[in-house]
Amino acid sequence: MAKKKSSLNTPENMTVYMSKVLARDLKNYAGFCNAVLSTIDYVVGPVWAMQLYNGKVTHWAILEEVGRLIYIYTGNLKPSPIIPQDQFYERTVNRKGNKIRQVATIEYNQRMEACIRWKDEE
Fold first, then answer.
1. How far is it, in rounded angstroms, from Cα 14 to Cα 109?
2. What pLDDT is attached to residue 67?
3. Strand partners of residue 72
4. Of the candidates 4, 16, 28, 30, which lies 20 to 30 Å from 100 by C-alpha distance?
5. Given this model, what pLDDT does residue 1 score?
């Protein structure tokens, strides 16, 4: 029987991940804030949103949890933080050539920040 795997994505580790992936792009900005688990119109599922600052200009670095796409968004839509209320999300990941279905729940960590936990389905 296969062992069920679980991972918790927190604002801290997602900020580190996003800043590493966007390292070259972040040089164009004076600073950025921590990532926040959010939703944004026209994007399916939760996203990690991180504000990027350069003077009065604010852009958003967006990492889609389901599709794992990351981009810098310069439009006028603003992400809305997620409040844990028994939401469930699904995705399929490729692990060693096998497609694994995962289900996610939203929960708080010790700092009362919204996090997402992905678990393999049996």
1. 14
2. 79
3. 61
4. 16
5. 45
